[in-house]
From TrEMBL:
Belongs to the ABC transporter superfamily. This is ABC transporter ATP-binding protein. Residues 34-246 form the ABC transporter domain. GO terms for molecular function: ABC-type transporter activity; ATP binding; ATP hydrolysis activity.
Length: 250
């Protein structure tokens, strides 16, 4: 693996020898009859090596692109770095608060928009008074003024995504993991999302950007990683990572 690091900035994320294997139970005995006749033939366990042993360092203020085909391990890596999953081995040091953002993930569908704002804000380490102060801005940015006390299970997927995006924008975090965020909402909301990304997020924050859009990666990322079948194949120059990704798609 090639790895280029910047030397003049503090480290935001340091991952050493991390890996993740999922265990899936292949339960074909899904009826009572099947289970009774297969008492001595338990369901098989399948192991999925989603992330093979890898190390990486990300510096504060960098915008890093994460490239790879479907199932290459990008989301698994992001979830490990964001602390959503625990790593099977090695260690991850993170300096600063983190926020993982992808379409609607982290939202509880049985809660209202208001309740989700407070839960997500608390998870991010904000005090109730701090959430009170930004609450109206979050709802306004998400364009959900008429739906504050509606359970989000009644929202369209675009509305859920807009709420998640607005919480991320207003509550923020030192390190943002953004998984395909430019696919949020309709064209008008996307334009607003890109504007806020360029005006505030990109400045002073550490961003890890997962995207299948080479234009987005090329425009914002100072370095990029290319992943294939759970392996970090390359981490360094953005154009090199893009060319490896394009090659892999041919
Ligand atoms: N919670 C899970 N349980 C079991 N297997 C999982 C789980 N999450 C991911 N996997 C498996 O791990 C592998 C990597 O998945 P991952 O979601 O990290 O890929 P990805 O690069 O983010 O894909 P995409 O571009 O489709 O989002 C896949 O084979 C997937 O089936």
């Amino acid at each position: 693996m090639e790895n280029t690091t910047t030397v003049d900035r503090a480290v935001a994320i340091k991952a050493r020898n991390i890996c993740k294997t999922f265990q899936i139970s292949e339960d074909s005995h899904n009826t009572v009859k099947h289970r009774l006749f297969n008492l001595f033939n338990p369901p098989k366990t399948k192991y999925v090596p989603a992330l093979k042993t890898m190390s990486m360092e990300i510096m504060q203020g960098e915008c890093i692109g994460l490239l790879g085909r479907n199932g290459s391990g990008k989301s698994t890596l992001v979830k490990l770095l964001a602390g959503v999953y625990s790593t099977d081995s090695g260690y991850i040091n993170v300096t600063g608060s983190t926020m993982l953002m992808n379409l609607g993930v982290g939202m509880s569908h049985e809660l209202t928009a208001r309740e989700n704002v407070y839960v997500s804000g608390s998870v991010l380490g904000l005090k109730i008074k701090e959430i009170d102060a930004i609450f109206d801005e979050i709802i306004e940015f998400a364009e959900l003024e008429g739906f504050v006390d509606t359970k989000i299970k009644f929202f369209s997927s675009g509305m859920v995504a807009r709420l998640g995006f607005s919480i991320a924008v207003k509550a923020g975090a030192d390190i943002m993991f953004l998984d395909e965020i430019f696919a949020v909402g309709d064209a008008k909301f996307q334009e607003k999302a890109i504007k806020v990304f360029e005006s505030s997020w990109i400045k002073g924050r550490t961003v890890i950007l997962v995207s299948h859009s080479m234009d987005v990666i090329r425009q914002y990322c100072s370095r990029a990683a290319f992943m294939k079948q759970g392996e970090l194949v390359y981490f360094g120059d953005t154009e090199v990572a893009i060319s490896k990704y394009i090659e892999d798609n041919q």
